[in-house]
Amino acid sequence: MGSPPLKAFRLQAAGQRFRYNSFFLLPSDLITMDTKRKAVALISGGLDSMLAAKVVMEQGVHVEGINFFTGFCVEGHTHAIRKRHPERPKRNNALWVAEQLGIKLHIVDVIEEYKDVLLNPKHGYGANLNPCLDCKGFMVRKAHEWMEAHGFDFIITGEVIGQRPMSQRRDTMPVIARESGAGDRLLRPLCAKLLPPTLPEREGWVDREQLYDFSGRSRKPQMALAARFGFRDYAQPAGGCCFLTNESYSVKLADLWRSRGTRDYSLDDIMLLKVGRHLRPRPHFKLIVAREEGETRYLEGYRRQFTNLKTVSHSGPLALVDGVVSEDDLHLAARLVARFSQGRMADQVRIAVTTPDGTARTLEVQPLPPDEVQAEWYIDHEPLHA
Amino acid sequence: MSHYTLDARRLLCPLPVIRVQEQVGRLAKGDTLEVLCTDPGARHDIPAWCRVHGHRVVDVRTQGSEIVITVEVQGRE
């Protein structure tokens, strides 16, 4: 890319100059030459993508948003399962951003396709199980496919050079453009001036002079631009929007693969890793213990899939048993659940044990003393790459 | 004009929104879609999706532990 056009001609239309290039332009470019250009913006729900979309909208381009659901997204409602952080708005930030911008948002389920990105990342993982570079390339590729299917002209992302250690570096930005297939139809309005001109800039669809040269990890330029646009309320994820960047989550995912002897997962698997305490007292089973009422309610939805334990004589959490267990294992699990109940100091706690088919019985157990709950049973305490 | 129902129970957001988006894309103007949800987030997110796409939320009600949201399609996606 970047070579001079082999065949070009200029047209005057609506006072704007268009240049036809047989390599870079699509048939739709000629058809829509006298109409508004259309861009699809990757909207994460954070500030950067919101600003990037707004910058291009300000230039008269029709923008619609796209957001990909991988299953690992940290959504307001994932937090809402627990009652922590009640001050945080319980909203889908991508939809909220679209509403602020007054644009459509297309939310795309990529759960199945994303497995290959996570399980076989060409560029490897970051500090945890986050395949950020492959992930960004994947999302831009999906946006490019959407762009072509819907007759749009180019793609916008909120990337800023140097903002993220893996996917937003000067040397990785061309990799994303190349491997996604988007090429120079990928515009990064917040740092465009630090990059070679893209097709939308060269063709005059957007004015390069009105784009930006943000770089580095500082958020000040973005905050100043947000103030200029009158955006006062915005989410601050900046990379914190994916569970795979979270060490504790990644350790639990690695444990899941190790215990099953295969690197695969279902949506239920990865949702459950977001909820509860995860303890593995024996290699062949683990317990998922609700930490509070919201998690108990959420785990109740899985009672027909897992053997589950609930204190009867005292108030206490619901726990799911993941694995095939013996009678001794169940007894140990019940003592652990009793440990997390209001009956932890009692001599005996009664626990209801229910199997997925609904068969129920009761166990009377002594809560496990604290010194017998081994630290290594807590899965997120394990070293990730062990 | 036809009436349809969508079972989005046990799905966590944004999946109920995605299922609504898929279904609405197959419907015609004037059709109504009744969505059954259990995630309280759907109460906010489905109406938000409808607002940005220009569809009309006709009714939001609670039915036991479920939330029932009725959407009237205003045009093709």
The most extensive interface between chains reads: A-B, 27 and 19 residues
H/I helix tally of chain B: 2
Structural Rg of chain B: 11 Å
Describe the sheet with the most strands of chain A: 6 strands, antiparallel
* Mean pLDDT across every amino acid position of chain B: 94
Tell me the β content of chain A: 15-25%
Helix content of chain B: 25-40%
Number of strands of chain A: 13
Nearest-integer average pLDDT of chain A: 87
Order of helices and strands of chain B: EHEHEE
* Beta-strand percentage range of chain B: 35-45%
Report the structural category of chain B: alpha+beta
What is the oligomeric state here?
A: heterodimer
Quickly count the helices of chain A.
Answer: 13
Low-confidence stretches of chain A are 1-23
Q: Order of strands across the biggest sheet of chain A? A: 8-9-11-10-12-13
Distance between the termini of chain A: 43 Å
Approximate shape of chain A: elongated
Describe this structure in words.
The complex is a heterodimer of chains A (386) and B (77). By secondary structure, chain A is α/β, with parallel strands linked by helices. Chain A is built from 13 helices and 13 strands. Helices cover 31% and strands 18% of the residues of chain A. Chain A has a 6-stranded antiparallel β-sheet with strand order 8-9-11-10-12-13, sandwiched between helices. Chain A has a 5-stranded parallel β-sheet with strand order 5-4-3-6-7, sandwiched between helices. Chain A has a two-stranded antiparallel sheet with strand order 1-2. In chain A, strand 8 and strand 9 form a beta hairpin. The longest helix of chain A has 18 residues, at 132-149. Chain A starts with 7 loop residues before the first strand and ends in a 21-residue tail after the last strand. Chain B contains 2 helices and 4 strands, in the order E-H-E-H-E-E. In chain B, helix 1 runs parallel beside helix 2 (42-53). Chains A and B meet through helix 3, helix 4 and strand 5 of A and helix 1 and helix 2 of B.
